[in-house]
Amino acid sequence: MALPLIPIVLGVLATGAFIKAGRRGPKALKDSERAEITVIYDTLINGKYDPETYRRFATEFRVQGMVVEADMLDKRATLREMTAEEKAQRRAIFKKGMASQKPEIMRELAEEFERSGATGAAADLRNKAALLDIAGVPPHAETGSQPEGVVSHGE
Amino acid sequence: MANDFRDDDDADMGADAASMFVRADINKKPNPSRSLGRARPAPIALGRVRPAQAPIALGRVQQRSREMAITSPSRALPQAQIQRPSPRRIEGISSLAPAASRPGPRAKVSLDAEATPMAQRPVTPAMDPYTQDAVWEPFNEPAAGNGDPFEVSPAMPSAFQPFAEKELTPMGVSSTRALNIVGTPKPVDLGWFDRVLGWFGVARHKVVQATIAGEGASMAVMSRSEAAQQVVRRARNGDQNAMGMIAEVRKAAIGGMPQAIMSAKLMRQYIDTHPVSAETLEMGYGDMKPRTPSASAKPVDPSETRAITLSHGPKLTDASVLSALRAAGFGAEEYHSFKHGYAGRKMRNPDKRVQAANAFGKIVAKARKLQAVREPNSRVSDYSPIIGWELGED
Question: Which residues of chain B are within 8 Å of residue A108 when distances are taken between CB atoms?
Answer without folding.
Answer: 14, 17
